[in-house]
Design brief:
Elements (H helix, E strand, L loop, with lengths): L1 H19 L5 H11 L12 H17 L2 E2 L6 E18 L2 E2 L5 E4 L4 E5 L4 E5 L5 H9 L5 E5 L24 E5 L7 E21 L4 E11 L4 E6 L2 E4 L2 H21 L4 E8 L7 H7 L7 E7 L12 E4 L7 H8 L6 E4 L14 H5 L4 E5 L21 H14 L1 H5 L14
Parallel strand pairs: 6-7, 7-8, 10-13, 10-14, 14-17, 15-16
Antiparallel strand pairs: 1-9, 2-3, 2-9, 4-8, 5-9, 9-13, 11-12, 15-17
Helix pairs in contact: 2-5, 3-5, 5-9
Protein name: Peptidase M28 domain-containing protein
Pfam family, one: Peptidase_M28
InterPro entries: M28_fam (IPR045175), Peptidase_M28 (IPR007484)
């Protein structure tokens, strides 16, 4: 018994020692996040010079850390988006005029006429996650007519936000509020289509014995930019959302490169356009064979204490794979805890940048501390570095590094997401 107790105490002390001696320093965390959330970057809004500056800063950080680009010679993973300004839209059902406010059309075509007879029909029901399903349908590669349950009538106009930016596509998707007769519906519309350039920032650390198996650490680096002034401040800095997650990705890249013992290939990704519909992560996910992605740890808003206080965070979709259990196991003996997502009604698992790969079966989860029922600075100009707990944030980044060790070493492989309920 004494030997068992002694061994247990030794194991616990080893874990505590390992956590304390992970070389991720609060000084470095502070320096990185202070740049990303500075007024000079003006909130890192998509399609602005400032988000380009943020991307360049992250790319330089990856280069200095010793990463390699995912493809080619650049850390920037560039892609095109289009935006559509509607100039006119008319609709008729059985010869009767339909209120155009009850239709939102996503299209890359300047002129288009759609008939319900030639469209695949889908539905967003009252029990669905409205925006998650809408984003999924908006990315369709075939023409769709999506009937939206009248229960979402108050949210329906917000679908027009999807027209601000989307991937160029030969397909068009018409969302129609459910009280419209869609049996003989014809929609005619004209749009002014503009093309825009965006870029994720992606670097890799090649693995050794299992180089063709990938572990991803990710976060989005965009935010809201300049907005409505509050107490004289119009810059929505996005320190917690999500300069905190991006900082974690940069610091983890530096740490694992210095450690130099990863058996699996590590990919570090900073996504653009999360606030606009998750387009950066959608594009990124299409560049990788999902069967080669072992795990994705997406990091979203870790700058404030969780509902359990310090040294804790939660994992979205905890029950969908055993990744969370593996992370918990690797933290035994430390004073840090990962918990299941305490906000299941928010359906966070499919609302962040992990969602695209999760829908493809990857053990892709988001780690966060955000109190979804009480984050006073969320999407406000007051989301600044001064409101964050950088000591605790550093502890979270260290915990992520330690908890992922067996996955990175190739000794643990998380189970896959059951995607049968998504078909």
């Amino acid at each position: 018994m004494k030997k068992v107790i002694g061994y247990t105490l030794l194991l616990c002390s080893t874990h505590v020692y390992a956590q304390k001696h992970i070389n991720i320093r609060v000084e470095d965390v502070s320096k990185t996040i202070s740049v990303l959330a500075s007024d000079s970057l003006q909130g890192r809004k998509v399609f602005t010079p400032e988000i380009d500056k943020a991307a360049q800063y992250i790319a330089e950080a990856f280069q200095q850390a010793g990463l390699k680009p995912l493809k080619g010679n650049s850390f920037l993973q560039s892609f095109s988006m289009v935006s559509a300004t509607q100039e006119s839209l008319t609709a008729k059902s059985n010869g009767t005029e339909v209120d155009p406010q009850k239709i939102v059309l996503i299209t890359s075509k300047p002129q288009i006429t759609l008939s319900s007879h030639n469209l695949s029909i889908e539905k967003i029901t009252a029990t669905d996650n409205f925006f998650s399903k809408a984003i999924q349908f908006a990315a369709s590669d075939k023409d769709l007519l999506v009937v939206v349950d009248p229960a979402f009538a108050d949210r329906f106009p917000r679908l027009s936000m999807l027209k601000r930016s989307f991937f160029q596509s030969a397909a068009s998707v018409a969302f129609v509020l459910g009280d419209v007769d869609t049996q003989n519906l014809t929609i005619t519309a004209s749009h002014n289509i503009k093309e825009h350039q965006l870029a994720n920032v992606v670097g890799i650390l090649p693995g050794k014995k299992k180089a063709d198996e990938y572990v991803i650490f990710s976060a989005h680096y965009d935010h809201l930019g300049i907005g409505k002034p509050v107490n004289g401040d119009s810059i929505y800095n996005g320190a917690n959302d999500n300069a905190s997650g991006t900082t974690a990705v940069i610091e983890l890249a530096k740490y694992f490169k210095a450690k130099g013992d990863n058996e699996r290939t590590l990919i570090f990704a900073a996504f653009t356009a999360e606030e606009s519909g998750g387009f950066g992560s959608q594009y990124f996910s299409k560049q990788l064979p999902p069967e080669k992605v072992v795990a994705m740890l997406n990091i979203e808003m870790i700058g404030t204490d969780s509902k359990w206080g310090k040294n804790s965070a939660y994992i979205t979709g905890f029950e969908k794979t055993d990744l969370g259990t593996i992370l918990q196991k690797n933290l035994k003996g430390t004073d840090f805890n990962f918990y299941p997502d305490p906000y299941p009604d928010q359906q966070l698992f499919y609302r962040s940048d992990n969602a695209t790969l999760a829908r493809l079966g990857v053990a892709a989860h988001t780690i966060s501390t955000s109190k979804m029922d009480n984050e006073p600075n969320y999407h406000k100009p007051s989301d600044e570095v001064s409101t964050l707990d950088l000591e605790n944030m550093t502890a979270i980044i260290k915990a992520i590094a330690l908890s992922a060790k067996s996955i990175i070493a190739g000794t643990d492989t998380p189970s896959r997401v059951d995607t049968s309920d998504l078909r």
